[in-house]
Give the backbone structure.
Amino acid sequence: MALNFRETVRLAGLSVSAALLIAGCTVVQGGKASSSEPEKTKADLAASEAALMATDAMVTASTATSVASANIPVPLPAPRRANPVQVASIDPSAGVSALAARPGMAHFAGIYVDYGSALAAADANKLNTPSDVRRALAALRFQEPDALAEGWYTTRAMIAAEDPVFAQGVRAEVRARGKAAVLEALAADENYIMQLPGVSSASAAVAVSIRNEHQRMTGLAARFMDTAYKFQKQKWGMSTPLPGAAETKSAALEDESLASKARAVLAALSPVSRAEAYSPNVMTRILTLGAYQVIEGSMEKGLAEGRTPTGRCLNWARLNLNQCIAAARFPSEEAYCTSKHAITEVSSCWAEAVPPSTLAN
């Protein structure tokens, strides 16, 4: 009876100890409650309470065993994270600056490599037909003069960085003054690079590479000019209009007059000339980028934020080429525009880094 009573009370949500205390202290007689036992001493109550607590523990253990054997899922406390999740930023504009960051030297070098590949393809081109000229012209027309300029700078600067005498001189300067001081001087004074040991060796190596490139481009430009004269001598050379250029004679003459005026304006404003326009600061910047490469293993800190003089020069060459092609109507004129603006003027922009006497050697 006592066991049945304990189980009934447990199921009702009461503890066994509380149930027995109630059963032992009161009895119901005719609807009235009265004491059934004399008052116990403190020692007897303590002993009785300890026994009841032991019995309660046994029942609880038995219940847990029954739940486990019945495969009843027992909810466990949720684990507490050792480290809470860190949120990088709740600013909706976060990351936009990284997406809008300027391209790196790899991008610029790729633009220059593409132009160099176009020059190589033009070298291998036989230039026998108008189609040959148009194919070469399409590859040589660049749309990003500033990127092309930076690509040219970085490739020349790599030549300087790989010069062993120059690299040793830059490292010696870093050991003597400290890396931070040298980097600060490079950023603050464009002529500081000319004070470093080994700069003459690097300048010579860069000048040789520019001279070789200039000579190759000069020869290629001469081929296109010869092709223009050859096309003029052909019956179709000055009578077959370019695609999309068919028009009446009066309209052609009017356009020719406008084109001549535009060419005169461009010729007066354009800074593109032969290598007499020597600009030593071009070589200075090449060497500075080379020093960054030696010190940092990258030229990123020295890349231009805006348009450089070389970028402006190349932009004029691009504008001159576009205007020339817009005014051209015959295959001979296409060959002339390619020679004059797509090759010669571009070469002149790059040749500003070295004196004319160096190009002639």
Notes: Residues 106-360 form one domain. The CA atoms of residues 171 and 295 lie 7 Å apart. Residues 199-233 form the longest helix (35 residues).
